Amino acid sequence: METFLDTLISYGFDDRAAVSAYRAYTTFLLGQLLLEVSARGASLSSVEDELPEKTLRSLSSYPNLQRMQKQLSEDHSATEFEEALESLLDRLENGAPR
């Protein structure tokens, strides 16, 4: 995650744009992985299943994560999904044969 953010920043992304790109990428990747897993018949566990206890780690070795921690922990998933879906539908409409 640190390397991903560092690469985006090295290509001129500011913190806000880097967080947005990271979220878009991971959303796409996780969606694709869920489709693949379900297509292979794997059972998906319920959200209510007990998760292992989290171990907190220091971010001192991860300057980008440390600086962007607040932005990365904010949940804008509903809005991001709506905007991404609208964008996809617009692109499909603009590319559709008339």
TrEMBL record:
Keyword rRNA-binding among UniProt keywords: no
InterPro entries: Repressor_TetR_C, Tet_transcr_reg_TetR-rel_C_sf
Keyword Transcription regulation belongs to the record: yes
GO biological process: negative regulation of DNA-templated transcription
Residue stretches making up the Tetracycline repressor TetR C-terminal domain: 1-93
Pfam families membership: TetR_C_1
Keywords for the protein's UniProt record, in alphabetical order: Transcription, Transcription regulation
Annotated Gene3D superfamilies: Tetracycline Repressor, domain 2
UniProt-recorded name of the protein: Tetracyclin repressor, C-terminal all-alpha domain protein
